[in-house]
Fold this sequence. Notes:
Layout: E1 23-30, E2 47-48, E3 51-52, H1 53-63, E4 69-74, H2 79-89, E5 94-99, H3 104-115, E6 120-126, H4 134-143, E7 149-155, E8 162-163, E9 169-171, E10 179-188, H5 189-199, H6 210-217, E11 224-227, H7 238-251, H8 261-268, E12 272-276, H9 281-292, E13 296-300, H10 302-305, H11 312-326, E14 331-334, H12 349-377, E15 380-384, H13 397-416, E16 423-429, E17 432-433, H14 435-441, E18 450-451, H15 452-463, E19 471-474, H16 493-497
Parallel strand pairs: 1-4, 1-6, 4-5, 7-11, 12-13, 12-14, 14-15, 15-16, 16-19, 17-18
Antiparallel strand pairs: 2-3, 6-10, 7-10, 8-9
Amino acid sequence: xxxxxxTAPDAPPASPAPxxxxxxxxxxxxxxxxxxxxLGIPKQLLKIAGKPIIEHTLAVxxxxxxxxxxxxxxxxxxxxxAQRIVADAGFRKVSKVIEGGDTRNATTRIALDAIGEGDVxxxxxxxxxxxxxxRIVRECVNALWTYSAVxxxxxxxxTIIQVDELDCITDIPVRxxxxxxxxxxxxxxxxxxxxxxRAEGDPDFAATDDCGVVxxxxxxxxxxxxxxxxxxxxVTHPVDVHLADKLFQLAAAQAPRLTDHRSYTEExxxxxxxxFGGSYxxxxxxxxxxxxxxAQVFPFSRSTTGTHVERAEDVASALKTAFEATGxxxxxxxTAGILEKGALAEMDEETMDRLLHVNFVGPVTVARQSLPYLxxxxxxxxxxxSSSYTRGRARYALYSATKAALVNLTQxxxxxxxxxxxxxxCINPERTATPMRTKAFGEEPEHTLLSAEAVAQASLDVLIxxxxxxxxxxxxxxxxxxxxxxxxxxxxxSEQLSAGIEA
Length: 503
């Protein structure tokens, strides 16, 4: 849309008074009905990565220090759903959950009425853009100190064409000047209120976005554009659901790192952690690290305690031991896994059975047995996948397949167990220096492998976070030096392989 200079000759003064907003309000626009997705519920209530889309979106603004208040404009008939999500998640900044209007401009007017008078920063954001970043929110708010209207956009990777009523090209605009609009759109309250006041006198007024209203009815007002991101997609069509879900997996929502030993000790002292596969590799390093921070850790494995993760009675006994010793279980970690290479057609029945039972039946068994304990503490189950889950690899097809299954298991259980307050996450480490990997691939250059201790540290960060339904990537930092992992003396090959995770 281009500015129409004839619409409003009285543009704002060039040197307005200094802007002094009383607060910053995020308005979450959740009025969609999911028609294009073919759903029976509004798309913002669809679950991705273990949570409703709108909950992911609200969490970003709840965590943003620049945001003081959140107002949700919800689709008619679904206020109770939104209110329940807000209450269950404990979002303290949400002040109102109200019904939106029939049109975009009607919804904006409702929001402005709900905010009330006074000088306020206002951010309008689509509820179905759950991957908006904290950086985008911050830059929008900061830009309002200088500009009274702010948009978010990214360059167009495609050539844009203009067509006529016969679908024939009439123009091909220069791509360098084109952007694809996103949200949030941010405004000083006086600016957006005045734009809508002037629009009321236009019988042809129909808003598709709020910056367009300012552009048309306040033509002298500069609208600052800040960089959006490719990940800040809007879930509108069925393919968007799959893209958003994959982006949540690959984005690897980074668990916040605490700053010092004391902070970790304060978090972990008094917690009980059960580690299946805790003898060697990642499981061993995680157990040792958690102990140093004051956690009570109970490692179990085939080699040290005779615990087979695929046997329900073994798992039940292990959990009972930890619970009777401490009276609680806060976290259950399953690092146990085996890697057997070979063509599927040539693999014997015993090997196939062992792979499937240890790598998949084991985590399923642990999950089932752990739930009653984790319900009591609102705790977390942590599983481990491999980079091979995204693409089956020749000569270890069953290993790849079981790792993909664990990703699906993580997401499904995060959804199922949300009502119990139990979190479920999955670590996806880069190729890691563990005894299991050495056994399968031999000695490899140190600089090409991630250390088991680094994966253990990332795992600990996830355990003390509020993440759920996430697949967290763990990657080497540039220049990291990794010590070779020696083979464990005296361990049988099957025991050694069950001690660590190969990624």
